[in-house]
Design brief:
Blueprint: E1 40-42, H1 47-57, E2 69-71, E3 80-81, E4 91-92, H2 113-118, H3 143-167, H4 171-174, H5 178-185, H6 190-204, H7 233-246, H8 250-257, H9 261-280, H10 288-293, E5 305-321, E6 328-336, E7 342-345, E8 349-350, H11 355-362, E9 373-375, E10 389-391, H12 404-428, H13 445-459
Parallel strand pairs: 5-9, 9-10
Antiparallel strand pairs: 1-2, 3-4, 5-6, 6-7, 6-8
Helix pairs in contact: 7-9, 8-9, 9-13, 12-13
């Protein structure tokens, strides 16, 4: 036990027991019902002074109500204006702030003789009290005991915070596990994810939630379990990435994040639009010089290659039918620089469109120069519509005889085109595209697809090694 002890205080019962104010400072048990020496003061109306009081008394997330009080023992004597008469009311000076607490080792004032007289000698020494239900035990406020209480309080607060985090489905819950981050977001690590978040966070300050027009459809909707706007922006982003990466149903996401299903729908659409705008504003098309500066060794025989192009299809519930498929599809053109960065993403078209037609409509032709080359699949018969050189595997199946150089070049180009296939595979690792896209998502499918393609540049390392 520490040699230095705080005074043991005898709490005294007041004649007027109707006043039931209690001090809200942690570890302070003062009550107006049992003490007439102390005065009890309400929080100031000024917001800045309110914040100072809350910070000083260490009550985070504290709601200030009209009945909340701080007793006079936490103010310096120079901050108190004594009442002119015994029946008067003690007041605080303007600007007074509580500064005396158990945790900064202030000494509690013992009751005075005057107070004992005012209360008609009703002092209750706990050691002499038996079965008096109006008495309050004397408090041993030794430094050691107070420090033990403080340590225990901190431990319990930490335990409560950890329990709350473990019960909450949000980014904070999985921040310590890169495996979980990869699973839910496709970002390689938590550090990758947070670096990306810092880039887009300024744009989230002006985010405008998408609302549904007309009456809300309540069919199969999850019961209301929280506020539609209760998620922090970073958890809304985490919800969007989980939806994109795992293809989770909106009802499932509503249960996980404890919000309405309608809120899930709005969050996904809002973030698809936001990221489409933010990432779309970043110029991804690279100059000839930039492409050559990052050219991998495996492309040395095709060093003028500006972009490797290919098309990919998405299955969907829609009336846009592909003529050679048994299901509905969208089709998009994607371009990759030789070192593996996405440098071109077209809009989506009906699945029946040809490779040549999608290349002409996509707008990429205007970006190509005569000094560059494109590398395409054998189905891209586009010599008459591009101004540059074309590297394409030879169509060998329809020819009776093929030269050795043609076979060698075809195999070489096919090996290099694997990189664009791997890129498309990374895009489709977002499970929302590996299943049939629901009709409800077709309104924002262009945004979702484009965002998934552009995110590949941020989520992982390069596809092709420099050496």
């Amino acid at each position: 036990m520490s040699a230095k002890r705080l005074n043991v205080v005898k709490l005294q019962r007041r004649e007027d027991s109707s006043n039931s104010h209690h001090c809200c400072v942690p570890l302070c048990t003062a009550s107006a019902r049992f003490n007439s020496v102390l005065s009890f003061h309400s929080f100031p109306k000024d917001k800045e002074r309110q914040k100072s009081w809350v910070v000083n008394i260490r009550r985070n997330n504290f709601t200030i109500a009209t009945h909340i009080r701080v007793c006079s023992r936490h103010f310096q004597s120079t901050d108190l204006i004594e009442a002119p008469t015994p029946a008067g009311r003690r007041r605080l000076k303007n600007g007074a702030v509580p500064v005396l607490f158990h945790w900064n080792n202030f000494t509690l004032p013992a009751p005075t003789n005057t107070d004992t007289a005012q209360n008609k000698d009703l002092s209750m020494d706990v050691a002499l009290q038996h079965h008096d239900y109006c008495s309050t035990a004397a408090l041993d406020l030794s430094l050691d005991h107070t420090e033990d209480n403080r340590v225990e309080t901190v431990r319990l607060q930490k335990q409560m915070e950890e329990t709350a985090i473990s019960n909450k489905f949000g980014l904070e819950r999985f921040a310590a596990s890169d495996d979980d981050i990869r699973f839910y977001t496709r970002f390689a690590t938590h550090a990758h994810l947070m670096a990306f978040w810092r880039q887009i966070e300024p744009a989230t300050q002006k985010i405008m939630p998408v609302t549904r027009a007309g009456a809300a459809d309540k069919t199969n909707e999850v019961p209301h379990t929280g506020n539609a706007t209760s998620l922090q922006p970073i958890d809304e982003f985490f919800l969007f990435m989980a939806s994109l990466s795992l293809g989770l149903m909106q009802k499932d996401l509503a249960y996980r994040f404890k919000i309405d299903q309608s809120a899930v729908s709005r969050i996904i659409t809002t973030w698809a639009n936001l990221l489409y705008s933010v990432l779309g504003a970043v110029g991804i098309w690279m100059s000839e010089e930039a492409v050559k500066a990052h050219l991998p060794d495996v492309f040395q025989n095709y060093s003028d290659t500006q972009v490797v192009l290919d098309c990919t299809e998405l299955r969907c519930q829609t009336s846009v039918f592909s003529t050679n498929k048994s299901h509905c599809t969208f089709k998009g053109l994607i371009g990759v620089a030789p070192h593996g960065a996405v440098t071109f993403v077209s809009a989506l078209y009906a699945g029946s469109i040809s490779d040549k037609e999608i290349l002409m409509q996509s707008g990429i032709v205007s970006l190509l120069k005569p000094t560059t080359a494109i590398m395409v699949d054998e189905g891209f018969l586009v010599e008459d519509c591009v101004p540059c050189k074309i590297y394409r595997p030879a169509i060998l199946a329809k020819r009776a005889q093929v030269s050795v150089p043609e076979v060698s070049e075809t195999q070489s180009i096919a090996r290099l085109r694997v990189h664009v296939k791997r890129l498309i595979q990374r895009v489709k690792e977002h499970k929302i595209f590996s299943t049939v896209i629901p009709l409800s998502a077709t309104g924002s499918i262009n945004q979702l697809y484009t965002v998934a393609c552009l995110l590949v540049n941020y989520q992982n390392g390069p596809l092709v090694k420099a050496g």
